[in-house]
Amino acid sequence: MLLQTSSRSVGDTLIVDCKGKIIFGEETAFLRHQVRDLLNNYRHIVLNLADVSYIDSAGVGTLVGLYTSVHNGGGEIALVGLTGKVKDVLQITKLVTVFETFATPEEAIAHFGREAEQASAVTSSK
Predict the structure, then answer these.
(1) Total count of domains within the chain
(2) Does the global pTM surpass 0.90?
(3) Which sign, positive or negative, has the C-alpha torsion 17, 19, 22, 23?
(4) What span, in angstroms and rounded, lies between the C-alpha atoms of 105 and 17?
(5) pLDDT for position 120
(6) The predicted structure's pLDDT at residue 123
(7) What is the per-residue pLDDT for 124?
(8) Among 116, 98, 81, which residue's Cα sits nearest to residue 11?
(9) In what side-by-side order are the strands of the sheet with 76-80?
(10) Could you tell me if residue 119 is left (phi over 0), alpha (psi between -120 and 50 degrees) or otherwise beta?
(11) What CATH code is carried by the domain that includes residue 35?
(12) Which backbone phi and psi does 92 adopt, to 5 degrees?
C-alpha cells in the first residue's frame, strides 16, 4: 500500500496520521514535502505511525531529515504509535533515543504543553 496521510491541528501542533509504508520513492518525498510545507504554521509536529506497516532506510532517512528541519526551525517533533517492524527499525537504529516517542498523539500534545509551561516559567523567573 502506498503511503497515505491526513493531518489535523490542535493549537500549535500538527498531527500527521500516516498509513501504509514509508519507503523510497514517492512516499518519502510526499511525506517530506507535506511536513516541510506546514512547518511555518506549526511549532510542534506529531507523526502518528500507528498504521505504518513498514519503513525502509529511505524512510528512516526521511524521519531524520524531518527531525533536523523541525529543530532547525525552532520546533519539536514526536513520533507516536510505534508498532511492530517500525518500532524494531527505530530501536535498531537507536532513533528512539533521538525522537520523543509516545503511545498516542494526546500524550505528545500534553508533553509539548508541559514543555511550553516550563519554558515560560524559566523565562518569567529571570
Answers:
(1) 1
(2) no
(3) negative
(4) 9
(5) 52
(6) 46
(7) 46
(8) 116
(9) 4-10, 13-22, 44-55, 76-80, 100-102
(10) alpha
(11) 3.30.750.24
(12) -60, -40
Burial status of residue 93 (CB atoms within 10 A of its CB: 0-12, 13-18, 19 or more)? middle
In angstroms, the CA 66 to CA 75 distance is 11
Looking up cell 498523539 gives 105
> pLDDT truncated to tens, each residue of the chain (126 aa)?
689 999 999 988 999 999 999 999 988 998 998 888 888 889 899 999 999 999 999 999 999 999 999 999 899 999 999 998 999 999 999 999 999 999 999 999 999 987 656 555 544 455
| Residue count of the chain | 126
* Residue range(s) defining the domain that contains residue 33: 4-125
Give the C-alpha distances (Å, rounded to integers) separating 68 from 61, 99, 110, 122.
11, 11, 22, 25
Enclosing H/E stretch for 48: strand 44-55
What does the block give as the cell for 32? 517530506
Take residue 112 and report the three cell numbers written for it: 509539548
